[in-house]
Write a structure and sequence with these properties.
By secondary structure, this protein is an alpha+beta fold. It is built from 13 helices and 5 strands. The chain has 2 domains: 12-105 and 409-427, Alpha-Beta Plaits (2-Layer Sandwich); 113-401, no CATH class. Strands 1, 2, 3, 4 and 5 form a 5-stranded antiparallel β-sheet that branches. Strand 3 (60-62) and strand 4 form a beta hairpin. The chain is flat, with a radius of gyration of 28 Å. The relative contact order is 0.14.
Length: 434
């Protein structure tokens, strides 16, 4: 499948760097200073002064020419060709070896929390769609549902703005995350307004949707529905990735591809039909789910090589696919559970505050309980909601988006004999957008 611009990693090409043999060191110096080529060298990655000399010796010579093979961003081809021209050098595209995956360089660099969400899980395979922005949106949405409180969300927004301004010294190292933290706080404020929560059930804001303490069941249903929507998005992205990785035939039989998507859609339609007593939906859902299970079975048998063991494995994995689907959807019930826990803790704090309130020392005690209780709840629930959102992101969503891991692009930039590459100049500056 052709790669749409900006849908994934920076387009790479396999190249041969060719130069005159008598100018091999000067040509290599131009390559090192450009910092846009990952050379196929056994010594690559050893940041030592003699790596340059080993690379020069590793060039393949023929007549008066010498060459090296490696990977580079396609957009840098013209610039590197111009740098090599004074030494009789050139950049020649070559065919990619069968089964070799190009290295991955993300168009938006390595900075930012949305990028870190994905990179912490693993390197995006070169053929895959980059899900960084969608992952950040899903994380913020799930965090807001679990941390729903207008007051606590406003505090989190304040923390994010303080990070941006650099007011809090310990947080300056993670200053780039200020927008992510701020948006998470805004999401918490939105859900807090829906719940009618502002530092607990204080009555400062009206209930716009439901009170978690009064209507936990609708909140649970909403959490599972949101989880189903997020899972649908992950199945769609996974199907696109499987097509990119191995074509339509590969995607058709994969559990994280079209077969898995069909099973998810079929079970969804079947459930909807049973709940609403709509026989046509029940029939369509059952047929679609059965067809998807058959495709998964065939795919496992094919990958396992056939034989009795392969059929046994396929049977087990087919049943597992159906049972796991239900557990994956129900797993999103934790969005409601932790949102309810947050509301319950703040309700306890508010009950203690109102019970202690009285003229004199009672008022002091009430204020102390209110402040300390909110601080403890804020810290505890922010940690819990953050971890649980990450857990859902990685185990429920990313497990369908990715089936393997890519290899990060590492440009060759060793020290050169007449001086190191100028410090403070990262490679591919024009393609790294913070």
């Amino acid at each position: 499948m052709p790669r749409p611009e900006h849908a994934g990693p920076v387009p790479m090409e396999r190249v041969a760097i060719v130069a005159l043999d008598e100018d091999r060191e000067r040509a290599l110096e131009a390559v090192a200073r450009a910092g846009v080529v990952e050379l196929d060298l056994a010594s690559a990655g050893a940041d030592t002064a003699d790596e340059f000399r080993r690379a020069a010796a590793a060039g393949v010579a023929h007549d008066r020419l010498v060459g090296w093979v490696g990977w580079m961003p396609r957009h840098e081809h013209a610039r590197l060709t111009e740098a090599l021209a004074p030494f009789g050098g050139a950049v020649v595209p070559v065919r990619t070896p069968v089964g070799e995956q190009p290295p991955t360089l993300m168009a938006h660099g390595t900075g930012g929390t949305s990028r870190a969400l994905v990179d912490t899980y693993g390197v995006v395979p070169y053929a895959d769609v980059d899900p960084a922005r969608l992952a950040a949106f899903a994380y913020i949405l799930m965090f807001g549902m679990m941390f729903g409180d207008v007051g606590h969300g406003a505090l989190l927004v304040g923390v994010g703005l303080a990070m941006r301004a650099g007011w809090i010294a310990p947080l300056r190292r993670v200053r780039r995350a200020w927008l992510f933290v701020t948006l998470a706080g805004l999401a918490a404020m939105v859900f807090g307004a829906l719940y009618g929560e502002a530092f607990g059930p204080t009555g400062l804001v009206p209930v716009l949707w439901l009170d978690p303490m009064v209507d936990p069941v609708p909140l649970l249903v909403a959490a599972i529905a949101l989880g189903a929507v997020l899972l649908a998005g992950s199945y769609v992205t996974g199907s696109v990735n499987r097509v990119r990785e191995g074509g339509w035939a590969y995607a058709l039989y994969e559990r994280s591809g079209l077969a898995g998507s069909g099973l998810f859609a079929g079970v969804g339609l079947l459930t909807w039909g049973l709940v609403a007593s709509l026989l046509p939906l029940v029939v369509v859902g059952a047929v679609l789910a059965l067809a998807a299970v058959v495709l998964i079975f065939i795919g496992v048998v094919s990958s396992a090589g056939g034989g009795a063991t392969a059929y046994l494995q396929a049977g087990i994995e087919s049943v597992d696919s159906v049972s796991r689907l239900g557990s994956n959807v129900v797993s999103f019930a934790r969005l409601a559970a932790f949102g309810l826990t947050h509301a319950a803790l703040l309700a306890v704090v508010w009950s203690g505050t109102t019970a202690l309130w009285s003229p004199g020392w009672g008022a002091v005690a009430a204020v102390l309980v209110f402040v300390v209780g909110n601080v403890v709840t804020f810290g505890l629930e922010a940690l819990v909601a953050g971890v649980q959102a990450l857990r859902l992101e990685y185990y429920e969503l990313f497990s369908r988006v990715f089936v393997g891991e890519g290899r990060a692009f590492r440009p060759w930039r060793p020290p050169v004999p007449d001086g190191a590459v100028p410090p403070g100049t990262p490679p591919l500056e024009s393609y790294r957008k913070e």
